[in-house]
């Protein structure tokens, strides 16, 4: 059986689900680490994605230089945003409800600012011209950029898992999560580690906005949608778990694409049910794939 026998409209939709799921993972990975390490409930994470999408709309001009500038700006703005979040929530340590309200206020202010500056109309972002075409998969046309995005996102997955599970930085992070008091007693700077995770999470979210803008473009309300799906990924995957977030993101991606195509009315129910089960079963965060 050739490729044409294996590929059908549902296969293409499932491939879309992989792209969507990996995009959600890149966003949610930062959010799950922010909670798992820093203990911060950030409702402004979707705002960072939207900021990255608007950066891409402004700077990405269809060439590699424009994309490079957008990515550089994403790293800078994500770092500043993460550092600002760390400073804002520092007085609210161990006060999760106050953290939620404070970051939710930031998200609302930012959303109003985006609408004022960029307008209320949805914006489309073109991929680099070299990746703007489509390729035939078993007789079906599929965007080259989405295939490229899947490859880049897969690389990010590998790097994140290595960073958390195999590197010295990851060992420090795991130590801070396991026992902050003992980590501090051994000379580890727990406060600096938490702030660094917030910065890293911000960079991931804004970078995801730049890379994902041709897939989910900037528009009012996108920040809320991204935040909700990211929270579902974090809850279902286990707060603080990178591997869990990956599996959950891929699952959510399939529900939002293939699930909608097969059973349109049941997709939202399946997401809600999965989150309810996860909330019932899980009772503590985990890191680097350890079961909750």
TrEMBL record:
It is found in: Cell membrane. Its main location: membrane. The keyword Transmembrane helix applies. InterPro entries: ABC_transp_permease, BCAA_transport_permease. Keywords: Amino-acid transport, Cell membrane, Membrane, Transmembrane, Transmembrane helix, Transport. It is a multi-pass membrane protein. The chain crosses the membrane at residues 20-44, 64-88, 144-164, 195-216, 228-248, 255-281. Belongs to the binding-protein-dependent transport system permease family. LivHM subfamily. This is Branched-chain amino acid ABC transporter permease. It comes from Micromonospora parastrephiae.
């Amino acid at each position: 059986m050739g490729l044409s026998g294996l590929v059908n409209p549902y296969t293409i939709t499932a491939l879309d689900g992989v792209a969507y799921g990996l995009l959600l993972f890149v966003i949610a990975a930062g959010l799950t680490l922010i909670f798992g390490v820093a203990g911060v409930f950030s409702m402004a994470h979707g705002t960072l994605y939207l900021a990255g999408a608007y950066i891409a709309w402004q700077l990405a001009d269809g060439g590699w230089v424009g994309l490079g500038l957008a990515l550089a700006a994403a790293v800078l703005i994500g770092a500043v945003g993460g550092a600002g979040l760390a400073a804002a929530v520092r007085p609210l340590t161990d006060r999760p409800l106050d953290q939620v309200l404070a970051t939710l206020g930031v998200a609302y202010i930012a959303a109003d600012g985006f609408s004022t500056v960029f307008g209320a109309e949805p914006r489309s972002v073109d991929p680099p011209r070299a990746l703007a075409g489509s390729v035939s998969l078993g007789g079906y046309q599929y965007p080259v950029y989405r295939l490229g995005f899947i490859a880049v996102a897969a690389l990010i997955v590998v790097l994140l898992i290595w960073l958390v599970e195999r590197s010295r930085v990851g060992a420090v992070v795991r130590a801070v999560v396991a026992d902050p008091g003992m980590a501090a007693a051994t000379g580890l700077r727990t406060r600096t580690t938490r702030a660094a995770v917030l910065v890293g999470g911000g960079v991931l979210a804004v970078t995801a906005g730049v890379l994902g803008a041709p897939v989910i473009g900037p528009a009012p309300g996108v920040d809320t949608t991204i935040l909700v799906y990211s929270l579902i990924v974090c809850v279902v995957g286990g707060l603080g778990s990178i591997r869990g977030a990956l599996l959950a993101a891929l699952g959510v991606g399939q529900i939002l694409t293939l699930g909608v195509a097969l059973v349109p009315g049941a997709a939202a129910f399946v997401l809600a049910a999965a989150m309810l089960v996860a909330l019932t079963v899980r009772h503590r965060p985990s890191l680097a794939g350890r079961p909750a």
